[in-house]
């Protein structure tokens, strides 16, 4: 390529990148109105609450209730009186700005740039700064104030755009944290739960312990419950796309519900909703028939949250999950052993809390004992049929000792009487062949009567000579 062509290519890439960067930056406060996002509803007379919130608070008419997309419980839990309601710590106030605060793009006094400013990671921010849309705290606070005003008017879609722009104009600051939180709240109360979850997760990822952690966990828990109920009422394959309902994820409603539950526990493991999230995850897997995953999460509740109110139910449902994992006496017996331990713990620790379930747990434990005896009986029968009576006696005696009240105890006693005179191991039918590779019992421990391989040059054929000496035949004369 010629030098002129290379220059033209570089110029084209530069102009294209500059145009793309200018189009991607958020608008300044002076012309935000020109870029107002499209409201959730086309009808100007309908406010932007969302059908879930209106139906919960009884604001819908009878006809509106019939048109509700789903009968499940809504995720929107409380009406926000103002954008800071329900927040554990107050957001950075948007008021009290200096009267000289400028809302126009800041002028660039420093026109010098370093080479690192044009790296792939920094080129976007550099282009914004060159075009006058770089970080500006005054513009960010003005946008945040506009967003709060729209939020109070329940114009959640427009408010989300202002909060998003405010976060972009003053990144890596407490203002960004508040703006992202209020943006997620706007999505939440306009029933755009996937966008709300993504914004909450983005906030938790960048600001590890945000000031609004309790409120975020409540929102994510409500979203997870809504998606779980929605999937139960109208299940779909994970790969089935959702193109019409803004309150559902694009794909895999069930998987996103589990992700929301796990986000609550991972980001606030000692919070008030941590054990609730783990228990809800376990119950979801249990209803889904995924008993191994359910048993794991019930174990997490039992071991990591010993003071949780879910302890009795975690024991009961953990027993059921492990029994469902058990596939029979021909397979691994670990789930059966763990279910027996859980049943014993439940009866000893939660006897009062179990109430009427106490008798049922006792019956389940008796059934577990029967199944464990069945496993030993199956192993004893296996060795019995192979005529390895020593091993068979061991398991028959274990049944009499450990499970004397089961139906297998009399059968084990009867079989022990029948094999009383039988040898420990079956007779060796191929002793002549095994002696080739292993010397007879009477010669074990005796000094060898033939030279070692290092003392006799005929050592490579010594094993042939020994074989022929034990079993002579005419071919022996060929061995010299």
Give a written overview of the molecule.
The protein is mostly helical and 480 residues long. Among the domains are: 363-418; 431-478, no CATH class. It is 56% helix and 0% strand. Helix 1 (3-24) crosses helix 4 (123-130) and helix 17 (389-402) runs antiparallel to helix 18. Residues 19-70, 86-109, 452-458 and 475-480 have low confidence and may be disordered.
Architecture blueprint of SSEs:
Elements: H1 3-24, H2 51-56, H3 62-66, H4 123-130, H5 137-152, H6 156-169, H7 174-189, H8 193-206, H9 213-233, H10 253-267, H11 274-288, H12 291-304, H13 311-325, H14 334-349, H15 351-354, H16 357-385, H17 389-402, H18 408-418, H19 431-437, H20 462-470
Q: What sort of overall outline do the alpha carbons produce when their principal axes are compared?
A: elongated
What Rg is obtained from the alpha carbons, in whole angstroms? 38 Å
Distance from N terminus to C terminus (CA atoms, Å) equals 87 Å
Q: Give the H and E element order.
A: HHHHHHHHHHHHHHHHHHHH
List unreliable stretches of 5+ residues.
19-70, 86-109, 452-458, 475-480
Total E-strand runs: 0
Helix percent reads 55-70%
Residues in β-strands, percent? under 5%
Count the DSSP helices: 20
Q: From the helix content, strand content and strand pairing, which structural class follows?
A: mainly alpha
Largest pleated sheet: none
Average pLDDT metric: 77
């Amino acid at each position: 390529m010629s030098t002129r062509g290379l220059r033209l290519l570089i110029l084209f890439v530069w102009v294209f990148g500059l145009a793309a960067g200018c189009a991607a930056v958020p608008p300044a406060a002076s012309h935000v109105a020109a870029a107002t996002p499209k409201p959730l509803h086309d009808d100007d007379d309908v406010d932007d609450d969302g059908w879930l919130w209106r139906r919960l608070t009884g604001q819908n008419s009878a006809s509106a209730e019939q048109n509700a997309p789903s009968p499940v419980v809504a995720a929107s839990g409380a009406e926000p009186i103002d954008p800071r309601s329900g927040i554990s710590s107050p957001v950075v106030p948007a008021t009290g700005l200096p009267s000289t605060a400028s809302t126009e793009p800041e002028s660039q006094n420093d026109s010098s740039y370093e080479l690192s400013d044009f790296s792939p990671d920094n080129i976007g921010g550099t282009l914004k700064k060159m075009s006058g849309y770089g970080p500006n705290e005054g513009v960010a606070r003005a946008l945040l104030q506009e967003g709060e005003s729209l939020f109070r008017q329940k114009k959640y879609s427009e408010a989300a755009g202002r909060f998003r722009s405010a976060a972009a104009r003053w990144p890596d600051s407490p203002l960004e944290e508040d703006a992202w939180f209020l943006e997620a709240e706007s999505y939440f109360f306009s029933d755009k739960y996937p966008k709300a979850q993504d914004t909450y997760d983005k906030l938790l990822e960048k600001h590890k312990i945000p000031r609004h952690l309790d409120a975020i966990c409540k929102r994510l828990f409500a979203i997870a419950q809504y998606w779980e109920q929605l999937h139960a009422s109208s299940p779909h394959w994970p790969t089935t796309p959702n193109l019409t309902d803004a309150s559902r994820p694009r794909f895999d409603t069930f998987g996103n519900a589990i992700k929301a539950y796990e986000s609550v526990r991972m980001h606030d493991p000692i919070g008030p909703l941590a054990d609730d999230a783990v228990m809800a995850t376990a119950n979801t897997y249990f209803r889904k028939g995924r008993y191994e995953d359910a048993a794991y999460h019930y174990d997490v509740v039992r071991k990591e949250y010993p003071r949780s109110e879910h302890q009795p139910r975690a024991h009961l449902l953990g027993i059921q999950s492990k029994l469902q994992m058990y596939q029979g006496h021909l397979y691994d017996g670990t789930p059966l052993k763990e279910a027996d331990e859980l049943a014993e713990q439940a009866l000893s620790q939660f006897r009062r809390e179990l109430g009427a379930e106490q008798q049922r747990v006792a019956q389940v434990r008796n059934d577990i004992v029967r199944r464990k005896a069945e496993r030993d009986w199956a192993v004893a029968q296996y060795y019995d049929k192979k005529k390895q009576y020593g091993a068979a006696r061991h398991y028959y005696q274990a049944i009499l000792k450990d499970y004397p009240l089961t139906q297998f105890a009399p059968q084990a006693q009867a079989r022990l009487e029948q094999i009383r005179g039988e040898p420990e191991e079956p007779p060796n039918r191929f002793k002549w062949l095994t002696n080739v590779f292993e010397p007879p019992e009477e010669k074990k421990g005796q000094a060898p009567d033939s030279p070692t391989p290092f003392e006799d040059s005929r050592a490579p054929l010594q094993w042939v000579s020994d074989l022929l000496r034990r079993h002579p035949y005419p071919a022996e004369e060929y061995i010299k």
